[in-house]
UniProtKB/TrEMBL annotation:
This is 3-oxo-tetronate kinase. GO terms for molecular function: kinase activity. It is an enzyme of class 2 (transferase). The keyword ATP-binding applies.
Length: 425
């Protein structure tokens, strides 16, 4: 297997979002969970997205895991590696975007790294270095209340400068609109002046195509699925990939019971849960009880077993920002988040044990905990449920045939759960 593109994603939903974008733009792509074992049988692909769960861990550990993934991807032939971060730049002043970017740049020997979380299809645009989520700047968007990494500054040059060892420059939209060569010469100027990374504006897909073309001159880039789109289209345009070969790898039905687990507290997910109440039985966990013991999970499983034979079910820990804040005050942010993620993983394991073969998970960290517990080594990418969310078919899993959807908290329309089930027969 010789790769044209290697990708390291800092969470599992982000990885499937990227794998989806690469597939839709002509690259045969597989998503692996961590660095694949040597005996994992992977199809012949153009791109591998190695999923890490490194967004919210200590920066040093994120750097170590990302470096190991980079080494594996390079050893399989990847000449360019994209570090996939969240389109809402989820991070704190300690990292992990800056420290991982710095380490990958050093290992690759690049002078300067292009950085953009823009993903216009989902409303993420960058102008003058400021990230917009739909119509509002990042710091006014629901991300200001994220349970793990509240985002209070929309200026990414400033945000990244607080995390990185290098100076952070800006390539503004006017330069991007002037074309690849103008971007290249601006980058040369920044690099000569000691800038090791530059946030680059993008508002439309055509901006990302220009950025992708320039990024391919380098060995590393940092961005979300929009940059994936630019890189994929650049690779196809240059003839390095035959887009006709990229058919969907994961179509046949699996049957079996269906369940949804929601651990995201994003506004989008809260709305999707409210809509799902009209379509399937929904159990709201008591988050306080989840944090203090195992009984709430047992109660949920007893409830699930009563309903599973009759159709899909949804179990949610999600609650409003005020309730999240109260719980975190009582138990601490990390402890509360971790306990709920582990409860979701317990539930996923028990649900699969009870015959669930179609599983939808809402929330990035939540999905990471679930997929780790199920021990799934990788995924093939199937139909697109919503922008950034494909159907995934597990490969090499002990449970046999199984399809999943791993939804970023913020993604999907109000009927997401019903929409997903329709595409997961
Ligand atoms: N009711 C709740 N109170 C506090 N934290 C919660 C609650 N429900 C879930 N969480 C935690 O909030 C975090 C949500 O993050 P994540 O799953 O990545 O969702 P998103 O995709 O929206 O970022 C997880 O750590 C999860 O365990
Ligand atoms: O880029 C994005 O927005 C997503 O791919 C992503 O990474 C979302 O993260 P979570 O909301 O934590 O799932």
């Amino acid at each position: 297997m010789t790769l044209v593109l290697g990708c390291i994603a800092d969470d599992y939903t982000g990885a499937s979002d990227l794998a989806n974008t690469l597939t839709r733009n002509g690259l045969r792509t597989v998503q692996t969970i961590g660095i694949p074992a040597d005996d994992l049988k992977l199809p012949d692909v153009d791109a591998v997205v190695v999923s890490l769960k490194s967004r919210s861990i200590a920066a040093g550990a994120a750097v170590e895991k990302s470096r190991a993934a980079d080494k594996w991807l390079r050893s399989r032939g990847a000449s360019h590696v994209l570090f996939k971060i969240c389109s809402t730049f989820d991070s704190t002043d300690k990292g992990n975007i800056g420290p991982v970017m710095d380490a990958l740049r050093t290992d690759a020997g690049d002078n300067i790294v292009l950085v953009t979380p823009a993903f216009p299809e989902t409303g993420r645009t960058v102008y003058q270095g400021n990230l917009f989520v739909g119509t509002v700047p990042l710091n006014e968007s629901p991300l200001k209340d994220h349970p793990l990494n509240p985002m209070h500054d929309s200026n990414l040059v400033r945000v990244l400068a607080r995390q990185s060892e290098t100076n952070i420059g800006l390539v503004d939209l006017g330069i991007v609109a002037s074309g690849a060569d103008v971007v290249r010469s601006h980058l040369d100027g920044l690099s000569e002046n000691g800038f090791g990374a530059a946030v680059i504006d993008a508002v439309f897909a055509k901006d990302l195509e220009t950025i992708g073309t320039v990024a391919l001159d380098h060995r590393v880039s940092v961005g979300a699925s929009g940059l994936g789109l630019g890189l994929a289209r650049g690779l196809v345009a240059s003839g390095r990939v035959n887009a006709d070969a990229a058919t969907s790898l994961a179509e046949k039905p699996v049957g079996g019971a269906a369940a949804c687990l929601a651990g995201s507290c994003s506004q989008a997910t809260l709305q999707q849960i409210a809509k799902a109440e009209h379509a399937m039985p929904v159990l709201h966990l008591d988050p306080e009880k989840v944090v203090v013991g195992k009984e709430e999970v047992q109660r949920a499983m007893a409830w699930a077993k009563e309903h599973l034979g009759k159709g899909p079910i949804l179990i949610a820990s999600s609650s409003t920002t005020d309730q999240v804040t109260q719980l975190q005050k009582r138990h601490g942010r990390d402890a509360a988040g971790h306990a709920i993620e582990q409860a979701m993983a317990d539930l996923a394991e028990a649900l699969v044990g009870a015959g669930v073969r179609r599983l939808i998970v809402a929330g990035g960290e939540t999905s990471g905990a679930v997929v780790d517990r199920l021990g799934i080594p990788g995924f093939l990418v199937g139909a697109e449920i919503a922008a950034g969310v494909p159907v995934l078919r597990a490969v090499g899993a002990g449970q046999g045939d199984m399809v999943l959807a791993l939804k970023s908290g913020n993604f999907g329309g109000p009927d997401f759960f019903a929409d997903a089930l329709k595409l997961m027969p």
